[in-house]
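User:
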Amino acid sequence: MARLPRLVVPGQAHFVIQRSHGGQAALAEVADRETLARLLTQTAAAEQVQVHAAALLDAEVQLLCTPPDAQALSRMMQAVGRRYVSAYNQRHRRSGALWDGRFRCAVVQGGATLLEVLCLIDGHELDPADPTRTTAGHRNGGRPGIPVSDPPEYWALGNTPFDRERAYRELLARGTPAARAQALRAAALGGWALGSADFATQLAKSSGRPASPRARGRPRRPAI
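Assistant: Predicted structure:
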């Protein structure tokens, strides 16, 4: 079966995952995470991509971002990927591939689903003393490692910065249930829409490609 074209919608948030090749620890060291954060900040600004959240885990990068056009997200990820591999290989005196193919992403419906993804990404290995891991510090009164743009869903959490930070801390402390976290991740890796059934249907119509996986099993035969 041919690989589906990547689903990217201008002006819509996307949950992006870029995995390392073979699960190697491509971002385990602080210096490496600082390098990727700098490259991401520079390239996002150049491509006018709004970055809402980022998690730099040992073996993968997770982002929530909104591109201004269909190609900006790809240009940003390709530029960051190439430049980071060059810097990483030079620093660690190695050669060869670092990333596991192309990045994966899911278009995210605004509202509750977007807030879920925001909390999932910022909630990874939350450590206020280490701003190189996630962008949670930006919304927790800590030191941000990557400049981010707050989506409307975050602003709706309260009328003052204190109210918003408190409400967001409570959401992070509550955490994302394991099954839901797995579903969000699977959608990004599969290139599907994240949101309601109507949202997926609308995306499928506008893009001309499926926006949700088909139901398992053979289709039912029509009644005779």
